[in-house]
Amino acid sequence: MAEGSVTNISAAIPSSYKPMFPENRLPVYAVFQLVLFTSIFIVGFFGNCIIIYGVMQQGKYRTTSNYFIANLALSDLAVLVISLPVQLLQELASWPFGEIACKVFYPLGDVFICVSLATLTIISADRYRAIVTPFKTRLSKRQAKYAVVLIWIFSFLVYGLPVSFLLKIVEDERVWFCYPFWPSVLAKRLHMAFTACLVTISMLVIAYSYIHIVRSLWQVRIIYRASSKDSQNSIVRLEQKRKLVKMLITIVIVFAICIMPYVLLAISMEFATLPRNEIVRIALVVVMSQLYLNSALNPVILCTMSKDYRKGLRPCGC
Description:
Blueprint: E1 6-7, H1 28-57, H2 64-92, H3 99-105, H4 108-131, H5 141-164, E2 167-172, E3 175-180, H6 185-226, H7 232-271, H8 278-305
Parallel strand pairs: 1-2
Antiparallel strand pairs: 2-3
Helix pairs in contact: 1-2, 1-8, 2-4, 2-5, 2-8, 4-5, 4-6, 4-7, 6-7, 7-8
């Protein structure tokens, strides 16, 4: 590693950012973390590949929802392939790459989470428009593709590009790690507050959309059941919509359960100035495990609750 790319100012860095085990001794919970992360990677990697393959197999029958589901699987796959190994290197070892890799790969974790959140929000809005306001024009397949591209551009501009300029390689007791140098404490806290607001607003939009969707489906179901038998086909289509909405709501709930502890702990560490002791370190391992677990659970939910996405299992004989 080049001398000019390493900064040695460890006294100014909070201990929570430093490598957890610079003395090369892994405690039991760190070994458990390594095993858990490896298991999450294996399940999530193959699961998300199956989902993407399943969407590709649908060909001309793809819907706007299929494009967004594939995008969600792509962001989950990126989390597992890029963010998870980077996190393990940061915590359990020394940063083996240079400063350019630090600036490129380290911010991508937040970018991928933003992509997932934005995708779930757009899915809920698309379902709201299709079910609650069915006479309004829906997104076309081309517009869905544009929306996916815009989601990635927005996420990179908000979380990838700004943070990359703040990252440097830091040396502490012959151990290197990637660390963001914020221009001020206020700038860092504003960034965290913006993230919390973005998550909160997105979850409120999602909740509002699905509450009205469920209410609308329930009302239509009552009307269909009270009508003649000629509406049997309509009841079947309604049941298909109900299953899709149920699956999407499950994905959103799991996402919220997995991401909120991470957001709350990060805010608490910054604003409540929690002590950087062993308990907090273990808490970080737990919330990070939940965060990555979400990327492995999404394909499990999709394959379990939708026969369309189970098509991706067929080539591997499952």
